[in-house]
Amino acid sequence: MKKTIIATLLAIAAITAQAQVKYRIEGNIGRDFTGTLYIINQSDRMDEIVDSVRVVNGNITAHDGNYQQAFLAVMAAKTIRLQLAPVFIENGVVRIGANSGTLASGTPLNDDWNRLYAPVIKLISDYRSGKMPEADLKAALDKQIEPMLKAHPADPLGYFIVTQFYDVISVRRGLDYVAMLSNDWQNREMIKRIKQELNTKVATQPGAKFIDFAVEYNGKTTRLSDYVGRGQYVLADFWASWCGPCRQEIPNIKAAYSKYKDRGLQVIGIAAWDEPKATLKAIAEEQIEYPQIINSQKIATDIYGIAGIPEIILFGPDGTIIARGLRGAAIDKMLAEIFDKKE
Fold first, then answer.
1. Cis link prior to 310 (omega < 30° from 0)?
2. Is 289 inside a domain boundary?
């Protein structure tokens, strides 16, 4: 019996020893900084300070360390706002220094991230320069992302890929990406939140009926159904006073309201994640005339799977969702197609 126990303990010790990650960090951070950078575990947003390195005039004093497993990290200073791009801490020498726009190289996970990052940046550049339509961009990105994700289903790189690209191709493709991860990584809190967000979006994609919600403010309850599903097209702007891109979209929404309000369009603002006083101040500053649902906080955004604002949704007369994610000229283009066909 004793031999069995000893053998078991030795086996466990051997497994533990094998799991230990021994790393060296060296290189240059590309900034004129002298001080301490802390290595913070970002796998599943744990924000655990694992280690630190000394930096002198941007040069890292070569540092050896160990941890129980490989992890995704950021390197950040405590005294000033300095945070470097993500890096994978794993067995071997992690070389810090710009490499095709990324932070680190020299180890398998960092090198594979470099191999994915470079073509992705090139594709995005081609799209922004007008060389590639959006549909072709998404298809090309998927061809780069899928094989790399399949090669890393159970390590921090696979996790990082999902967190970066889950909402780039499509909602359903994002769910495919999540499903490619191992069960362990799918059960991490960040991935569970992503999955919940995507499932919520599936239920509120174009073609689905609107989901109602109620918001109380100043003793009055306002519902989305006070406007949506009542025989008019409804353009709903989820926004906040502090959100720069939201404020930039307001002139486009006001123009749409002015142009189409007499032709069957209702416009509403849905203030999210904002203090009512700040919302009212912004409404006055922007001279917004269309009605607002104030103080929705997270109620509306949780229901519609909105992780970032502005989010502009067009509802049909019967409450069916026609389009999501409208911005800029796309707003007028969509409305022109609808109202010009009616006449």
1. yes
2. yes
Annotate 274-295 with b (16+ C-beta within 10 A) or e (fewer). beeeebeebbeebebebebbbb
Q: Which two tokens stand for residue 221?
A: 């309850």
pLDDT of 46: 75
Which band of pLDDT confidence, cut at 50, 70 and 90, is reported for residue 59? very high
Looking at 82-91, 99-108, 135-144, 190-199, which range is the least confident one? 99-108
Q: Helix (H) and strand (E) counts for the chain?
A: 11, 15
Q: What is the torsional sign of CA 255, 258, 263, 264?
A: positive
Asked if 195 and 231 sit in the same domain, the reply is: no
d(CA 164, CA 42): 13
**What is the value of pTM for the model shown?**
0.74
226 and 163 in a common domain = no
AA identity, residue 37 = L
Rounded CA gap, 192 and 295, in Å?
27
CA distance 153 to 176: 12
Q: Which amino acid is at 175?
A: L
Burial class (CB in 10 A: 0-12, 13-18, 19+), 146: middle
- Taken as a whole, the chain contains a residue count of 343
What is the rounded CA–CA span in Å between residue 265 and residue 133?
Answer: 30
- Whole-angstrom Cα distance, residue 84 to residue 110? 14
What range does the domain containing 238 cover?
214-342
- Measured at the CA of 272, the angle between CA 170 and CA 161, to 5 degrees, comes to 30
Helix (H, G, I), strand (E, B) or coil at 77: coil
How remote is the C-alpha of 211 from its chain's centroid? 23
Whether residue 235 is found in the same domain as residue 319: yes
Closest CA relative to residue 223, chosen from 297, 298, 300: 300
